[in-house]
Amino acid sequence: MCGIVGYIGDENARDIIIDGLKRLEYRGYDSAGIALCTENGLVVRKRQGRIQNLENMIAGEDLYANLGIGHTRWATHGAPSDRNAHPHCDRSGRIAVVHNGIIENFMELKEWLQKEYGIEFQSDTDTEVIAQLIGVFYSGDLEEAVFRAVEKLQGSYGLGIICSEEPDKLIAVRRDSPLIVGLGEGCNFIASDIPAILRHVRKIYLIENNETVILTKNDVKIYNAQRQEVHREVFHVTWDADAAEKEGYDHFMLKEIHEQPKGILDTIRRRMDADGKIVLDGIRMTKAEIENFNKVYIVACGTAYHAGLIGKTVIEKLAGISVEVDIASEFRYREPFVDDRTLFIAISQSGETLDTLAALREAKRKGARVLSVVNVVGSSVARESDDVFYTWAGPEIAVASTKAYTTQLVCMYLIGLYMGREKGTLPQDVYDRYIEELLAVPEKIEKVLRQEKQIENLAKKFYRRDNIFFIGRGMDSAVSYEGSLKLKEISYINSFAIAAGELKHGTIALIEEGTLVIALATQDRLLEKMISNIQEVRARGADVLAIAKENRTAVEQQADDVIYIPECMDEITPLISVVPLQIFAYYIAKQRGCDIDKPKNLAKSVTVE
Ligand code: F6R
Hints:
The protein is an alpha/beta fold. 37% of the residues lie in helices and 23% in strands. It contains 19 helices and 25 strands. Strand 24, helix 18 and strand 25 (561-565) form a beta-alpha-beta unit. Helix 14 (428-449) packs parallel to helix 19 (574-591) and helix 15 (452-462) crosses helix 19. The N and C termini lie close together (11 Å). The structure holds fructose -6-phosphate. Fructose -6-phosphate (F6R) is lined by residues 301-304, 348-350, 353, 356, 400-401, 485, 489, 606.
């Protein structure tokens, strides 16, 4: 969840690291810090709050160094504060460490260090244990001390380590937390994620689990856990740094909402030939293999899980196979029925979500074939899967996921269509109709985006509400979960989503005068039932904002306000109906003065359990 960055070269590390941290701020932003290896030894500066606070702190200081590390934090052990901010140092003040992850045995190690070495800890963090461990093992050879310390650690870590005694060396270690190395001319970098260093380099090493990297300004060596040097292919980043900039939008979230038509089209085009035939090149899915599966398991977290809920309906319908969907943190402790006839689909934007990764490993251990739907190329989920279906959303920076979600949905349709066609159970005309509808989605989303002003006005009308419910039936119920999550995570309004037919079994007790109910009514075959549900909540005093397809006048007659989406097949609506909900959440949060791209308590990449 935190972001780490490090630099070694001939430039001033301070500016490069501060810039890198700003680009990693989406990973955590409750405190930030920097350690520089200056002529006068190690200088460490850290501050609670945003990176701006750290920048203000060092603004007047003449700090120069060719080696340094930095950190932006999402607190796990120890409250956000100056003292708990990273980097952490050993007691001699010569060694500094930044860490992304969690050290599970830190209490045990802390007690040992206190008892054996009389170390007095300066923070409440698990990370300080690493710095102190390296410190007690250090006798002039940083590499050796790091290897010895890492042997004692349990848990997850992406580490950046420097020592004032060895100013020509930067060390990085990875286990279950993302870590990349950037290869420059006469300089090298480490970071948790590519955007942090894309201004400087395009050649990257993707570091694997249990690897240690020794960087000097002209050289990078990677070692495995047995301390053998390993060879790594260079990964060339093809996308542009500008893709991770706001380009005139007030927030990344709004920019990313607007990028959905392109992301969707790119995701479809990468997997479709000129004749509209889906091609899953590089993904092993022969007819015989598909026929061998007797079950599909989709596992993910948060928004990606909501994409899985739609995936269940779509794949069951198109491929004629039973699909289970589970939340990753539940799946792994459930002892699920998974075996070598299971197709396990992991969905993850970041590809670094620890719960999803752990579920994937559990499924693999039980023999399942793992296909992942991932946005970040080379991420952990992608690397540990048998096959990867990349979403082509481009970098998603806002914490609230939007374009990753809709491109994940596209993958669900493409997987379902491909499996159904290969099995020979999906009639050609049905297949063709879906392809036609999918290809028309980007233009239909553009049409919704043109209603942005109207949706903003609705947000102005409703932004003071304390409770907002989302209801829907069939596929609309899955979309309502996503709409509600979007709203609560960025506006902090208490929001609840429920299948509309389930309301009367308890939750309707909460509906009263002034409650806002957002009713998704896009499923023609369930429209009458949905209209009854709208009437039920209105009878109890709720205001109703409906989402409906054009010309459904019956909805207009019952709801207080309606946002229309263009005509399309019921089965395709989730790709479109979520867009007004994203825009609505965005403008509600804006009206309430919230920090939209960096909501409180959240982080973009959740690499803790
Ligand atoms: C919400 C959101 C989260 C993520 C979830 C999984 O807007 O972004 O709910 O969807 O943390 O993250 P990934 O997809 O990276 O595995």
